[in-house]
Amino acid sequence: xxxxxxxxxxxxxxxxxxxxxxxxxxxxxNERLSIGARLATGFPELFDYCSELITADGPALDxxxxxxxxxxxxxxxxxxxxxxxxxxxxxxxxQRPGPENSIGKLVAGSMxxxxxxxxxxxxxxxxxxxxxxxxxxxxxxxxxxxxxxxxRIAGGTDEILRNIIAERVLGLPGDIRVDKDxxxxxxxxxxx
Length: 192
Fold this sequence. Notes:
With about 190 residues, the protein is mostly helical. Helices cover about 55% and strands about 0% of the residues.
């Protein structure tokens, strides 16, 4: 959006003149930090649930596949924790939040969805129950599964986050865009 003949007093300006992109980027990175840092993955709840769950084949923790999945998510959970520490450390030094927040949000959002689906799968047919009195784990995993798509959209979709990680973390070239330097209102569209 472009404004013509707009004057903003210095007392109301964020950042230096002409530095709007850095202000916007900092705002987005802080948003991703706040979403990613508070996004519960459901791993501690799943681990506790599996520790108590008795399936038709015996205790869930005796199942190799269950233990393998728990180990996989334990590693991811630990990685998220230390990536979050890295972001907080940068902020404490007065640095701008970096792309690690995109990594955290991407991993946490998909992990939440995977964990909730797995817990419901462990419940079998009872996994679809939503009544807290009847549902396994009080319906906690059903609620997680239903809210997980929203978490994967808020603050940037998975695709946007992957592009950020590819370009800013891995240094891969960006997508080819013929309209990159064209103002939005001048991009040709059908029907105009």
